[in-house]
Amino acid sequence: MAAIIELENISKHYSPTIIGVDNVSLTVEDGEFVTLLGPSGCGKSTLLRMIGGFETPTAGSIRLADKDVTWDPPYKREVNMVFQDYALFPHMTVGENVGYGLKVKGLGRLEIETKVHDALKLVGLFDKVKLRPQQLSGGQRQRIALARAIVREPKVLLLDEPLSALDAKLREQMQIEMKHLHEKVGITFVMVTHDQTEALVMSDRVVVMEKGRIAQQGRPQELYDHPASPYVANFIGTTNFLPGRVIRCAGERAEIEIGGGRLSAIVDAPLVAGSTVTAGCRPEKVRLLAEGETAENVLEGRVAEVIYYGLGLRLAVELADGSRVYTDSLLPDRLALSAVPPLGQSLRLAVEPHNVFVFEGEVTP
Amino acid sequence: MTRKILLGALGALALTTAAPALAEGTLNVLTWEGYADPSFISKFEEESGCKVNATYVGSNDDFAPKLMSGGGVYDLITPSIDTTKLMIDLDFVEPLDTAKISEWNNIYKKFRDLDGIQKDGEYYGMPYVWGAIAFMYRDDAFTTPPTSIADLWNPALKGKVALWDDKSSIYVAARLNGDMDIYNLTDEQIAAAQKKLLEQKPLIRKYWATAGELVDLYKAGEVVISNTWAGYQSGLLKAEGIKVTEFIPKEGAEGWMDSWMVVKGTPNKECAYKFLNMQLSPLGQCGVANINGYSVTNPVSAKACMTPEQYKDLHQDDPAYLDSLMVWQPLGDRFEAYTNAWNAVKAQ
Amino acid sequence: MSHARRNLSGGMVLGIPLLWIALFMLLPYGIIVTFSFWVKKYPTFVPAFQFGNYVTLFTDPQYVLVLLRTLKISVLVSVASLLLAYPFAYWLVFRCRSAKLRTWLYMAVIAPLWVSYLLRAYVWKTILGTEGVLNSFLKSIGLIDEPSSIFLYNQFAMVVTLTYIFIPFMVMPIYTALEKIPANLTEAAADLGMGPWRSFWTVTLPLSAPGIAAGATLTFCLSFGDFIAPFLVGGPDGNLIANVIATQFGAALNWPLGSALAIVMLVVVLTIVSLSDRMERKGATGGI
Question: Principal localization (chain B) (predicted)?
Answer without folding.
Answer: periplasm
